[in-house]
Amino acid sequence: MVSCSNCGQKLEENFYFCPKCGVKTKAGTAAGVSEPWEDVRKAFLTAGEEMRKAFEKAGEEMRKAFEEARRESQVRRTAKRVVCSNCGANNPSEAKFCHKCGRALS
User: Fold this and answer.
1) What sign does the dihedral 71-73-76-77 (CA atoms) show?
2) Which of 31, 32, 89, 92 has the fewest Cβ atoms within 10 Å of its own Cβ atom?
3) Are the beta carbons of 86 and 79 closer than 8 angstroms?
Protein backbone atom coordinates (compact mmCIF):
# COMPACT_ATOMS: atom_id res chain seq x y z
CA MET A 1 0.00 0.00 0.00
CA VAL A 2 1.02 3.58 -0.63
CA SER A 3 -0.08 6.83 0.97
CA CYS A 4 -1.60 9.91 -0.65
CA SER A 5 0.99 12.66 -0.97
CA ASN A 6 -1.65 15.24 -0.03
CA CYS A 7 -3.71 13.81 2.83
CA GLY A 8 -1.87 10.62 3.85
CA GLN A 9 -4.80 8.29 3.08
CA LYS A 10 -3.71 4.68 2.58
CA LEU A 11 -4.13 3.75 -1.10
CA GLU A 12 -3.83 0.63 -3.19
CA GLU A 13 -0.98 0.64 -5.72
CA ASN A 14 -3.33 0.83 -8.74
CA PHE A 15 -5.35 3.90 -7.60
CA TYR A 16 -4.98 6.84 -9.98
CA PHE A 17 -6.68 9.31 -7.63
CA CYS A 18 -7.03 9.50 -3.87
CA PRO A 19 -10.64 8.67 -2.95
CA LYS A 20 -10.43 10.99 0.06
CA CYS A 21 -9.05 14.24 -1.41
CA GLY A 22 -9.04 13.64 -5.19
CA VAL A 23 -5.32 14.27 -5.80
CA LYS A 24 -3.73 12.34 -8.66
CA THR A 25 -1.40 9.61 -7.38
CA LYS A 26 2.03 8.60 -8.69
CA ALA A 27 0.32 5.69 -10.48
CA GLY A 28 -2.08 8.14 -12.14
CA THR A 29 0.80 10.38 -13.22
CA ALA A 30 2.76 7.40 -14.57
CA ALA A 31 -0.30 6.22 -16.51
CA GLY A 32 -0.80 9.69 -18.02
CA VAL A 33 -4.32 9.99 -16.65
CA SER A 34 -5.71 13.50 -16.91
CA GLU A 35 -7.56 15.09 -14.07
CA PRO A 36 -11.30 15.67 -14.65
CA TRP A 37 -10.93 19.45 -14.65
CA GLU A 38 -8.37 19.22 -17.48
CA ASP A 39 -11.02 17.72 -19.77
CA VAL A 40 -13.46 20.48 -18.79
CA ARG A 41 -10.79 23.13 -19.37
CA LYS A 42 -10.05 21.73 -22.84
CA ALA A 43 -13.76 21.68 -23.66
CA PHE A 44 -14.13 25.32 -22.61
CA LEU A 45 -11.08 26.33 -24.63
CA THR A 46 -12.46 24.58 -27.70
CA ALA A 47 -15.91 26.11 -27.23
CA GLY A 48 -14.37 29.54 -26.68
CA GLU A 49 -12.40 29.31 -29.92
CA GLU A 50 -15.50 28.19 -31.83
CA MET A 51 -17.47 31.10 -30.38
CA ARG A 52 -14.69 33.56 -31.27
CA LYS A 53 -14.77 32.35 -34.89
CA ALA A 54 -18.58 32.53 -34.99
CA PHE A 55 -18.62 36.09 -33.58
CA GLU A 56 -15.90 37.12 -36.00
CA LYS A 57 -17.94 35.78 -38.91
CA ALA A 58 -21.14 37.40 -37.61
CA GLY A 59 -19.33 40.70 -37.17
CA GLU A 60 -18.08 40.60 -40.76
CA GLU A 61 -21.58 39.78 -42.03
CA MET A 62 -23.04 42.66 -40.00
CA ARG A 63 -20.38 45.04 -41.34
CA LYS A 64 -21.30 44.03 -44.91
CA ALA A 65 -25.03 44.43 -44.19
CA PHE A 66 -24.52 47.91 -42.70
CA GLU A 67 -22.36 48.93 -45.67
CA GLU A 68 -25.06 47.74 -48.09
CA ALA A 69 -27.77 49.58 -46.10
CA ARG A 70 -25.62 52.74 -46.13
CA ARG A 71 -25.24 52.50 -49.93
CA GLU A 72 -28.97 51.94 -50.41
CA SER A 73 -29.73 54.90 -48.15
CA GLN A 74 -27.42 57.14 -50.17
CA VAL A 75 -29.06 56.00 -53.41
CA ARG A 76 -32.51 56.85 -52.02
CA ARG A 77 -31.35 60.27 -50.84
CA THR A 78 -29.81 61.11 -54.20
CA ALA A 79 -32.67 59.67 -56.27
CA LYS A 80 -34.38 62.09 -58.61
CA ARG A 81 -36.67 64.44 -56.74
CA VAL A 82 -39.87 65.94 -58.14
CA VAL A 83 -40.25 69.69 -57.69
CA CYS A 84 -43.79 70.93 -57.09
CA SER A 85 -44.76 73.49 -59.72
CA ASN A 86 -47.08 75.21 -57.22
CA CYS A 87 -44.85 75.69 -54.15
CA GLY A 88 -41.36 74.54 -55.28
CA ALA A 89 -41.02 71.83 -52.61
CA ASN A 90 -38.75 68.86 -53.35
CA ASN A 91 -40.73 65.62 -53.25
CA PRO A 92 -39.55 62.00 -53.52
CA SER A 93 -39.62 60.68 -57.09
CA GLU A 94 -42.43 58.23 -56.26
CA ALA A 95 -44.70 60.97 -54.81
CA LYS A 96 -47.97 61.66 -56.61
CA PHE A 97 -48.90 64.63 -54.45
CA CYS A 98 -46.78 67.39 -52.95
CA HIS A 99 -45.94 66.78 -49.31
CA LYS A 100 -46.11 70.54 -48.59
CA CYS A 101 -49.13 71.90 -50.46
CA GLY A 102 -51.00 68.70 -51.45
CA ARG A 103 -51.23 69.57 -55.17
CA ALA A 104 -50.96 66.71 -57.69
CA LEU A 105 -47.49 66.35 -59.16
CA SER A 106 -47.19 65.91 -62.90
Assistant:
1) negative
2) 32
3) no
What is each CA distance from 106 to 20, 91, 94, in whole angstroms? 91, 12, 11
What confidence tens digit (pLDDT) does each residue in 21-78 have?
A: 989 999 999 998 887 778 888 899 999 999 999 999 999 999 999 999 999 888 777 6
Task: Place 81 in a pLDDT band, splitting at 50, 70 and 90.
Answer: confident
**Domain spans of the chain?**
1-33
